[in-house]
Design a protein that fits this description.
Blueprint lengths: L2 E8 L2 E7 L10 H11 L3 E6 L6 E6 L42 E2 L8 E2 L35 E4 L4 E4 L75 E4 L7 E9 L59 E10 L4 E3 L9 E9 L13 E3 L6 E9 L26 H4 L6 H7 L16 E10 L7 E6 L3 E5 L2 E6 L6 E6 L10 E10 L7 E6 L7 E4 L24 E2 L3 E2 L32 E4 L1
Antiparallel strand pairs: 1-2, 2-26, 3-4, 5-6, 7-8, 9-23, 10-11, 10-16, 11-12, 12-22, 13-15, 14-15, 16-21, 17-20, 17-22, 18-19, 18-21, 24-25
Length: 604
């Protein structure tokens, strides 16, 4: 609210010095500015503190129709806070040239006023979606002043709180909330929208699911103002791309824990090969495998519907992510340790004498594992996890049922050594907190969506023991059911008759039902599952998230934008520029001792 700063007499002329203060405490979009500013300029009362006496007093200022002479001519005079060459409100400079809206700079005079915002200064100004006073990521408001997934933010400075996915309320960066935190049902565990898939036909991709299909962009949320709109349109001032996945790939996964009392687990059966035909070739209406019937001891189940039922609230259902690492060949695969350390298999070359004089390998010669002859050892990295126990310390299984594990030939090179012996033979050093007693008896489900490209080789490879089924487009593609030693399955997506450019889902269902070993390897090759990444386009004249300014030229100057869309000298930097400013209190706020124009306007 504009208010009197000081009134004094100079001869017969009364001089009124006014702080032109913009009270725009929330300029969350351009459309709000004009209405708010018009209201401020219609005349009102305001209680302010006299800076000399320290007392509050009520002042009345009627600014309507009192524009100084020359207002709108593009020349800034001493009785104007701004002059952008017109007498229109809603563009940063009021119609009477006495008011600069918060978050705007109106320099140089005669040019249109422009937005400016400094992410991290605690003042939430257009185009910022939040500003919590820092540029840290992971606290709800990102380094671009964008609300992060899992948070809601309000106020200036912004206060960010975690949202509760599953409470039935769509808040903050949530795109949905179906009253549960379980993914794969249309709304994932972070309350982000998932694609809708029906077996046998392409999935329907909806805005906000992170899949760019028939859309200008999709950044995985339904927020406006972050570069990709709630209608999946690229917003003015931004460029959006779908980058290749770099670094780790996190795939959502749901586990369900069982104890030994369940009749389908700890079924003692010595089976070495997978038993196909346990489940129907199409997923059921609930999106889960349909059991056809037991096929002997190696492939039996009396309560199959329990395996992938996630309605239980007893702690048996665990939702998390599976970390896949780049294999440097365009694929992603899980590994032995969470830090990316790969398992090693041992390869031995035999030598015909203990002196190793005729050995072709350069490694040290030692005693062969199968006898007294001499041999040299080499180690080969093997992808996947030979000891897959994701529910150690989780779920409902009591510690008394934890069991030691062994590993089969795929990872041991031969035989079924214990975990400790296999690690020693592979010359690997486990972490200091590594344990050798594990929680067996669990199921898992992985699901992700991909766009099929006929000219890209898209392959899924899997290694597992006990039951493994892979469904693509709701149809059974890999069938490794039953109790068995680790076996491998692979599917080339191009063989499935899919339509180029359409979106499909891949689901991997697994069960670990026998406490001897647990092996799991998931390899994805040729799939780009990244969502749109939108960044401001510096130099286009539109201020985007993370930009302090953008005047389209960015050549610097007082109140103007410099290179890289950063501000140089400006009103609000806390440094009084005597040539241009009467005050500078280090902010863009108008309703304090120094207005948003940094000019104490005098009207003669």
């Amino acid at each position: 609210m504009p208010y009197f700063k000081k009134l004094f007499l100079s001869g017969s002329v009364a001089v009124l010095i006014i702080l032109i203060s913009g009270c725009e405490t929330d300029v969350s979009n351009h459309a709000d500015i004009k209405d708010t500013e018009s209201e401020k300029l219609s005349g009102d009362t305001d209680t302010v503190k006299d800076t000399e006496t320290g007392t509050d007093s009520e002042k009345y200022v009627d600014t309507s129709g009192t524009a100084p002479k020359g207002c709108g001519d593009g020349t800034l005079s001493k009785d104007e806070a701004c002059d952008d060459g017109n007498t229109e409100s809603g563009d940063g400079c009021s119609a009477n040239c006495l008011y600069v809206a918060e978050g705007y700079t109106c320099n140089p005079p005669g040019q249109p006023c422009r937005l400016m915002a400094i992410c991290g200064d605690g003042q939430k100004l257009t185009p910022e979606l939040c500003d919590d006073g820092n540029t840290d990521n992971g606290d709800g408001c990102s380094d671009l002043c964008q609300v992060e997934i899992g948070y809601k933010c309000s106020g200036s400075p912004s206060s960010c709180d975690k949202t509760v996915c599953g409470d039935g309320k769509v808040e903050g960066a949530e795109g949905c909330d179906d009253s549960n935190p379980i993914p794969f049902d249309g709304c994932d565990d972070r309350c982000q929208v998932e694609a809708n898939c029906t077996p046998g036909v392409p999935c329907s991709s909806v805005c906000g699911d992170g899949l760019v299909l028939g859309e200008e962009c999709d950044d995985g949320n339904n927020l406006d103002g972050d570069g990709c709109s709630s209608q999946c349109k690229v917003e003015s001032g931004y460029k959006c791309i779908q980058p290749e996945v770099e670094g780790d790939l996190l795939v959502p996964i749901v586990y369900k824990d069982f104890n030994f009392a369940h009749p389908d687990f700890e079924v003692k059966a010595g089976c070495d090969n997978a038993t196909p035909g346990m489940v129907e070739t199409t997923l059921g209406t609930d999106g889960k495998p349909v059991f056809k019937g037991s096929l002997g001891d190696c492939a039996r189940a009396s309560q199959f519907n329990d395996w992938y039922d996630y309605t239980s609230t007893d702690g048996s259902v665990v939702v998390t992510t599976l970390k896949l690492f780049s294999d440097e060949k365009g694929g992603y695969v899980n590994r032995w340790l969470e830090d990316g350390t790969s398992w090693q298999s041992v390869a031995e070359s035999w030598c015909d004498n203990v002196t190793c004089s005729n050995c072709s390998c350069a490694e040290a010669c030692g005693t062969c594992s199968w006898g007294g002859s001499a041999c040299c050892q080499t180690f080969n990295e093997v992808a996947g996890q030979p000891f897959f126990f994701p529910l150690d310390g989780k779920g409902i299984t009591p510690i008394s049922e934890y069991t030691a594990a062994a590993v089969g030939p795929i990872y041991s090179g031969g035989g079924y050594p214990s975990e400790a012996d296999a690690i020693k033979a592979a010359s690997l050093t486990p972490p200091s907190d590594y344990v050798y007693s594990h929680n067996f008896s669990f199921t898992s489900q992985v699901k992700f969506w991909f766009e099929y490209h006929k000219n890209v080789k898209q392959v899924l490879n899997f290694v597992g023991d006990d039951d493994v089924w892979v469904f693509i487009n709701g149809k059974l593609a890999v069938d490794l059911g039953g109790l068995h030693a680790p076996v491998e399955g692979e599917i080339d997506v191009s063989t499935l008759g899919l339509t180029d450019g359409e979106v499909y889902d891949i689901e991997v269902f697994q069960a670990e039902r026998l406490s001897n070993g647990s092996t799991y390897r998931l390899t994805l090759s040729g799939f780009n599952v990244s969502r749109s990444e939108c960044r401001p386009d510096c130099g286009d004249g539109v201020v985007g998230l993370g930009e302090q300014c953008d005047d389209g030229v960015n050549d610097g100057g007082y109140g103007e934008c410099a290179e890289n869309c950063k501000l140089g000298e400006y009103c609000g930097d806390g440094i009084k520029q005597a040539e241009f400013e009467d005050c500078d209190d280090g902010n863009f706020i108008g309703d304090d001792d120094c207005p948003a124009s940094c000019r104490l306007v005098s009207i003669d």
